[in-house]
Sequence to fold (317 residues):
Amino acid sequence: MVSPAAFRPTTHAGTGTGPRARRRLPSWARVFLTGLVLWVVAVPVTFATGNINLIPTIILLGSFLVPVTFVVYVFGRADGVVTAERVFVAFLCGGVLGVLGASILEAALLRQPSGWGYVGVGLIEEAVKLAALWLLARHLPRYTARDGMVLGASVGLGFAALESAGYAFTALFSASGSLSLLNVVETEALRAVLAPFGHGLWTAILGGALFATAARSRHGRPRLGGALLGWYLLMALLHMFWDASSGIAVFLTLLLTGTPTQWTLISLGAAPGVTAAQVHTYTVISWGLLALDAAVGVLILVARWRRTAPPAPVTVT
Fold:
């Protein structure tokens, strides 16, 4: 005889597999939302209390929020070789090594400001990030292009987080000598929007190219070569174009809307006055150039990611 219990509806309470089970947000979304709430709370509290001791909290939260979120996101695309420890070390140590190396080389080689400074900064910063990644990944048991992209993104985002913190700290001091919390908030909000499309993107592509050389190496280790040099120069070019976008936008705005009087003042070394329409044109062109640069980088990264199949699973017997 069949027990009546067999006809009772099956419940899924506590199993998380039933139709009514709550769907949790992915880890990266929880990290982002938690950090965003903390930053949004910290800003008005600091404004209301005038407590300057809270300013480092705002700077650190705002500078690291988006980079850390993307590190958590890219970690979910890694395999067993790229552990949480390696991602953390790449983010922190790689970022610090990159910032320190870039600061030393830029101070030594770029003493006189000029238009070539953008070229120098792009070449130097991409080189030191690539060197930091190579240093941290020397003893991996296996190298795949996708792992290189994940660790490269971690190094680049660590660099971006520390760089953003420096810019936010500099923005704190206004021209009048007073402290401007509004400048800090504006700087962090702008750099947070741009963070995923700069250093993290470029170094991810370079990391994939670096690790891909291991497949062509006789010893199975990353090595320098013509292909890697080509990718390095391309990323340095994207970096240079990104940094120079503001100056290019100024030139294009004047080329399109400049008056003879403005060009005369420029030739005399004087600052020409600008109209509201020119400011609007400059803003559109500037953001358009950044969007173009970011789109090229994203398309390259997506294409490289899709071309590199994940490694076959290893069966343990």
About this structure: The longest helix spans residues 226-257. DSSP finds ten helices and no strands in the chain. Confidence is low (pLDDT under 50) at residues 4-16, 313-317.
